[in-house]
Design a protein that fits this description.
Elements lengths: L2 H24 L5 E2 L4 E2 L8 H6 L1 H12 L4 H14 L4 E2 L2 E3 L6 E3 L6 H17 L4 E6 L2 H4 L15 H9 L4 E3 L3 H4 L15 H14 L14 E3 L2 E10 L2 H6 L7 E5 L11 E4 L6 E3 L23 E5 L5 E8 L3 H11 E7 L8 H8 L3 E7 H6 L9
Parallel strand pairs: 6-7, 6-16, 14-15, 14-16
Antiparallel strand pairs: 1-2, 3-4, 4-5, 8-9, 9-10, 11-12, 11-13, 13-15
Helix pairs in contact: 5-7, 9-11
Length: 386
């Protein structure tokens, strides 16, 4: 390599870095990524403390990564190049063998972490005088393991759920959803980590069986697309979830969002009250306006909220408290068919005492329901013992 050529390459590289720095400075920082459905890292001025600890550089790297100019386009270009090279992963997302299913990598907790988290559930059971049930939703990488790339390392092998079940105390009843969901192609969205309405329906059947409450919904009460003896109604055919957004896999077709229970329920007069900021406001099971935005999963219940109370005075069973993550959003319409009251409690946004809440609201049963992935990483589970 000649000296002139080396100088040219060096100058070109420096010019690129300079141009990137200018673009980063001049481009307005984005607070939220609609594409990835998450908040982006922001620049924080260094202090003597953060410089010494190395925290500033860590945060700055996150900032540069999140605010990279044309970030979304670069992610898609990288995904295409990785696929062209025969690779089966991009940005911590695996490409399924069918070319259409995407899997976010699963991070299993350590044994000590899991023992601590299940310990919080056991403490909840010990603090309450009502039945407490506990269930973890298996990751899509477990349910549809046959579609994973060969020897994919960061996946759910079922051990987290097995260990969690073994750690449950006498005051907590574990309900295993794995058999009900495993192998069901339509149980999860291809482009998102959440289960579909079909998956939620299967889970509902297993949960009710585990709670000794089995009241199947008559197929003649429903209308729409047929699936496993029930009928579903398509409400959107253009859903791209967060796994798709992170992957850059632009060749993947969109998902379909369906419902099985119409607004108001198939039986009874269902009302929904939301508490997004403490004060109650009237809500609904479904929010059609959310189908026009990126995060179409918010169609169910309107998205994340600290507390949501669903009432159906004509239902057969009493009052259920569900301590949950977002998987319960699409499960809620089914629960509304069974229970006179369903209280959906999100620990991420709610600091109320659970023991006091159960007593004040006459709760008859409690269900702790999380995806295995969220349960492994949630830092708010200590509130179960409050």
């Amino acid at each position: 390599m000649s000296k002139k050529y080396s100088t040219f390459i060096t100058a070109l590289f420096c010019l690129f870095l300079f141009g990137f720095g200018i673009a980063l400075i001049l481009s307005p920082s984005r607070d939220f990524s609609d594409q990835e459905n998450r908040y982006l890292a922001q620049f924080k001025a260094p202090t003597l403390k953060t410089l010494r600890s190395g925290e500033f550089m860590e945060k700055f790297e996150d900032y540069v990564t999140d605010q990279f100019p044309l970030r979304d386009q670069w992610i898609q270009l990288k995904a295409l190049s990785e696929r062209a090279l025969g690779k089966q992963e991009n940005n911590r997302v695996y490409f399924g063998a069918d070319g259409q299913t995407l899997f976010a990598q699963f991070k299993a907790p350590s044994g000590d972490e899991l023992e601590q988290k299940v310990g919080f559930v056991n403490k909840l059971g010990a603090n309450l005088d009502v039945p407490v049930y506990f269930s973890l939703v298996p990751d899509k990488s477990f349910v549809l393991a046959d579609l994973l790339p060969p020897n994919a390392p960061s996946v759910d092998d079922g051990s987290t759920i097995e260990e969690a079940q073994a750690l449950c105390g006498d005051r907590v009843t574990y309900i295993d959803l794995r058999t009900m969901l495993t192998g069901e192609r339509d149980a999860f969205y291809r482009t998102d980590h959440h289960w579909t309405t079909m998956g939620a329906r299967l889970a509902f059947q297993r949960l009710m069986s585990g709670m000794d409450l089995v009241r199947p919904i008559a197929a003649e009460d429903l209308n729409g697309l047929s699936y496993q003896g029930l009928s579903y109604t398509e409400v959107s055919g253009s859903f791209y979830g967060t796994t798709y957004s992170a992957s850059g896999a632009g060749w993947v077709e969109p998902d379909i969002i369906c419902t099985v229970i119409p607004e108001g329920g198939t039986k009874g007069n269902v009302t929904v009250t939301r508490y997004p900021e403490g004060a109650p406001i009237e809500g609904g099971l479904y929010y059609p306006e959310k189908l026009a935005v990126k995060d179409k999963y918010a169609y169910f219940l309107g998205g994340n909220q600290p507390l949501c109370v669903i009432k159906n005075p004509d239902a057969a069973s009493g009052k259920l408290l569900v301590i949950r993550d977002s998987y319960a959003d699409s499960l809620a319409p089914f629960l509304a068919e069974e229970f006179q009251e369903v209280h959906l409690f999100d620990l991420r946004y709610n600091n109320l005492s659970l023991k006091q809440y159960v007593a004040d609201n006459g709760i008859g049963q409690v269900l702790v329901l999380y995806s295995a992935a969220n349960f492994s990483t949630d830092q708010n589970l200590f509130k179960l013992g409050m």
